[in-house]
Write a structure and sequence with these properties.
Number of domains: 2
Helix content: 40-55%
CATH class of the largest domain: Alpha Beta
Bound molecules: 2-amino-3-ketobutyric acid
Shape: globular
Number of helices: 11
Order of helices and strands: EHEEHEHHEEHEEEHEEHEEHEHHH
Number of strands: 14
Structural class: alpha/beta
CATH topology of the largest domain: Rossmann fold
Largest sheet: 6 strands, parallel
Strand order of the largest sheet: 3-2-1-4-5-7
């Protein structure tokens, strides 16, 4: 157990819900303060209501608990952000700047800020997109991620704050639903299949995107946060890869378990977002700097998702709400 006090912002989201128990195991339940806009359906450990756009409230909480590390996971994702771009920009940037500033003024030792494959746009090579590819994102979410990466690096260089970041691919998990992303189909499809229903996909069947199973995403996050600072050559955000697939390939993998499962395709505005993103990612710098290596492929992830969601839907106290975009 380590003598750090950890603040998780956006603890009720897809990543926060899965990361929280890992941090509690690593640092001790009492050392992790989970926060979000509202209380979670099921609470374990210490939880406080926090609106991270409120700089004063955030600073008061950081001081009161003597926070030494922050995981800032609150954000409006790609598809939802397009419905109200200025709101999404303000929320994503205000919360990020509040986190960086409170960390600088209150002596927080380490900060994790997620970036995304959404930071890339049409001028990045779409296959094996390299670490230093040009960033011209097509969505307001991607613009906020590209700007956020640079703000993180600025705080490292100007103030010596230890800010670390990963460009997450689409993350697939059973613990909580993603909310408003373009890769959400890859989670929604499992919920339908496990409940014996067919699925209507909002992306075209041959749309290839980089994805990752939550277990790998959590391990990458914690390994990056544990890595000696001197080994980190990237202070914007590290490229991170798991595996890539299309909706058609995912359907085939699911049909291995549920042969009657079928998918129809009705691409909507999210198709253009997906087409602006990489198809696969070159994460060799992460592998070299801090030893990153994914453990899951498409088939192993599919098996885990089906096994875990079967258990979830088999329960009477369902922990997953109906899937909404
Ligand atoms: C989204 O689809 O917006 C996110 C992401 C790839 O960052 N899952």
């Amino acid at each position: 157990m380590k003598a750090d006090t950890i603040l998780v912002i956006g603890a009720n989201g897809q990543i926060g819900t899965a990361l929280l128990p890992r941090l509690q195991t690593l640092y001790g339940e009492g050392a992790v303060i989970a926060t979000d806009l509202r209380l979670p359906a099921r609470q374990t450990g210490r939880f406080e209501i926090l609106d991270a756009t409120d700089a004063k409230g955030l600073a008061e909480l950081v001081r009161r608990h003597g926070i030494t590390q922050i995981y800032h996971l609150a954000a409006v994702l790609s598809a939802k952000g397009e419905a109200d771009p200025l709101w999404a920009w303000n929320l994503n940037m205000q919360t990020l700047l509040n986190v960086l500033e409170v960390s600088r003024t209150e002596g927080v030792k380490k900060v994790f800020i997620p970036s995304s494959i959404a930071a890339f746009g049409e001028h990045a090579p779409q296959t094996d997109t390299p670490q230093n590819a040009y960033l011209d994102p097509a969505t307001v979410y991607g613009i906020s991620k590209a700007a956020g990466e640079n703000w993180g690096q600025y705080y490292v260089k100007r103030y010596g704050l230890d800010v670390r970041s990963l460009r997450y691919p689409g993350i697939i998990s059973y613990e909580a639903l993603p909310g408003g992303g373009t890769t959400d189909y890859a989670v929604a499809i499992f919920h339908e299949a496990v409940q014996g229903r067919n699925y209507e996909c909002f992306l075209a069947e041959n749309t290839r995107l980089p994805m990752m199973y939550m277990d790998d995403a959590l391990r990458a996050t914690l390994e990056l946060m544990e890595a000696p600072a001197g080994q980190l050559t990237v202070r914007t955000s590290y490229n991170l890869a798991g595996f890539s697939f299309t909706p058609a390939e995912l359907t085939t993998a699911i049909r291995h378990h549920f042969p009657d499962f079928s998918v129809t395709y009705k691409p909507d505005f999210r198709q253009a977002i997906a087409e602006s993103w990489p198809r696969s990612i070159d994460d060799s710098v992460a592998r070299q700097d801090w030893g990153w290596k994914p453990a899951y492929d498409l088939n192993r992830m599919t098996y885990e998702m089906i096994a875990n969601l079967t258990a979830v839907y088999g329960r009477t106290d369902k922990v997953v709400e109906t899937f909404k975009v």
